[in-house]
Amino acid sequence: MNQPLRFRHSAARTAALALVVALAAVVANGLTPPSPALARVPAPPLPAELAYVPHDAALFLYVDAARVLSHEAVKGIRTADRKGVLGAIEAAAPQQFGMSVDDLKSVVVFVPRLTGPQDSEKVGFVVTFTKPFDKKKFEAGLPALLPNGVKFSVSALNDKAALVLQNFDGKDSKPRPAGEEGPLTGAIKAAASGKHALVAGLTFANLPDELRKDNLPGPFRVAKPIFASDAVVATVDLGQSLDLAVTVKAARAAQAADAEKALAAVTNLLTEELTRSLVTLEKDATVKDGVTVLKALLASAKRGKFERDGTDARVTATLPLQGLPLAAAYTDAFKGAQQAAARNRSANNLKQIGLALHNYHDTHGHFPPAAVCDKKGKPQLSWRVLILPYIEQDKLYKEFKLDEPWDGPNNKKLLAKMPQVYALPEVTKAGGTDTYYRAFVGNGAAFDWLTGTQITGFADGTSNTVLCATGAAAVPWTKPDELEFDPEKDPTKLFGLVVNGTAQVTMCDGSVRTLAKLPSKETLKALITRSGGEVIGNDF
Fold it and tell me: Highest taxon of the source (predicted)?
């Protein structure tokens, strides 16, 4: 049961005595204590776009869109990408949302927590515009940007600001209390100041617990003091240079000292990674502008300054923008990303094909023959048809007549139903019916025309034998037209460097290799045969 307030403890008595002494001193000096209203000046209210952001949010991002989009460097990138993703977004925005990209004033994103399995689905957005927006049209355009089936609500905070809450419940969908304080209060106030092009922050207490444990990957363990802090805040300013400041907010000065060392160690890791990337990229003349930008980034990282102020540890860096070929570097990087994505998708296609071939083997005791042949041994349909049930295409498989050629009356109509796994990314056009994924046949290769080979017969080893590959030419996917192996001929002419200048092969063990340069003829012959006893060259 609570007792009436009494000065029972020495600490309370001491505090009361101190208060009396202070008041006596004020009176003795002829001063009047300030009124409570003057002593505590309330903080100015936050702008509407920041009023809903929790001050302990797991993630917070503010972008001054108007400032970023109007910056000379960004305008150059937008011009260079008129026919790319940015250009497509700019072209679609007026029709889809009723506003152009240049009507954006700011964008705020926040995620309250990331500690539970469903937390990542709860995201808040606030978009502000330079002129009044059409709420109905804005709301109608949102599903194209959000994951399929996601629940969201749209509220007009005023005629120029829209609040979008994805999967929020009632208690989290209200403005934050006035005067709220938390690890990200400084970041939110920095965003409200209008001084920065970008402000970002995260609160570790609301991130997954794993980040604070000792199971970080080896190279990243040097960052552990950062993850043990309260929050990290970053600001970016844009002008003649890009100025970055990253601040780690700790609970104690000793933690801030450790965080300062960790920031230096992380920066050192970054410079080492940039240096390694440059060694590779400098050999590629097509990305010289990207190399120029990376060198500038490396120099900026090396000039980074580290400091500590009480419980804050900070690193600042400046990247001069004048003269940097940012637009050209962006184009190179975007093209490179597209090519890498296409290679990855193609490799995944080959992995699925390899898995299907092994599942066929598990079911039938052997790999499929290279073709379904008629009674006279004439090839009718490709092995690609035979493995349809193993790539989730059993219904399509049952539509084929196995006793009819690939271009017969029934089977020819099925060409148009080519599964996506046989399409070469960035090469096969929509509705295309040709494939580059082909198998080597005959003279000891993985496939024979009439009979299926058994995996026990791969004496050279499954990791040393090619199962299928990208051919030099595409063929109708149902046509039994494969890469016929002749040990007396040059096998390099059978392979196609068609995946953005690379060839890809699926080995019999299911692994996929991407080859920027083909090995020697001798090495390729050794890879194609399944029981030749050859030694694989070092060029593979």
Answer: Bacteria
Residue with tokens 């025309």: 449
pLDDT along the chain (540 residues), means of 10: 37 36 36 44 80 96 96 91 82 88 95 89 94 93 82 92 88 82 96 96 91 69 91 97 97 96 94 89 83 94 95 97 92 84 95 96 96 93 97 96 96 97 94 96 95 94 94 96 95 93 94 93 94 86
- Alpha helices in 365-425, H assignment, sequence order: 383-386, 394-397, 409-413
CA distance 472 to 475: 10
What is the DSSP code (8-state) at residue 502? Answer: B
CA distance 375 to 403: 9
Kindly write down the DSSP assignment for every residue of 127-191, as one continuous string.
Answer: EEESS---HHHHHHHGGGTSPTT--EEEEEEETTEEEEEES--GGGSSPPPTT---TTHHHHHHH
Question: Which residue carries 């043990």 as its tokens?
Answer: 228
Is the torsion defined by CA of 116, 117, 119, 120 positive or negative? positive
Distance of CA 141 to the CA centre of its chain: 24
What is the Cα–Cα distance from 320 to 303, expressed in whole angstroms?
Answer: 12
Contact assessment for residue 123 and residue 142, using Cβ atoms and an 8 Å cutoff: no
Residues 387-423, buried b or exposed e (16+ Cβ, 10 A)? bbbbbebeebbeebeeebbbeeeebeebbeebbebbb
pTM, two decimals, is 0.69
The Cα–Cα gap between 206 and 530 comes to 55
The angle that helices 288-302 and 326-364 make with each other, rounded to 10 degrees, is: 100
Q: In the Cβ-directed half-sphere of 537, how many Cα atoms lie within 13 Å? A: 13
Listed in sequence order, the DSSP H helices in 365-469 are: 383-386, 394-397, 409-413
- Phi then psi for residue 366, to 5 deg, are -165, 160
Task: Report residue 468 as tokens.
Answer: 């299928």
Instruction: Give yes or no for a contact between 280 and 294, defined as CB atoms under 8 angstroms apart.
Output: no
Contacts of 519 (CB under 8 A, 6+ apart): 527, 537, 539, 540
Residue 517, Cβ neighbours under 10 Å: how many?
A: 9
- The phi, psi pair for 301, rounded to 5°, reads -65, -40
Contact 472, 354 (CB under 8 A): no
Instruction: Supply 3's token pair.
Output: 């007792």
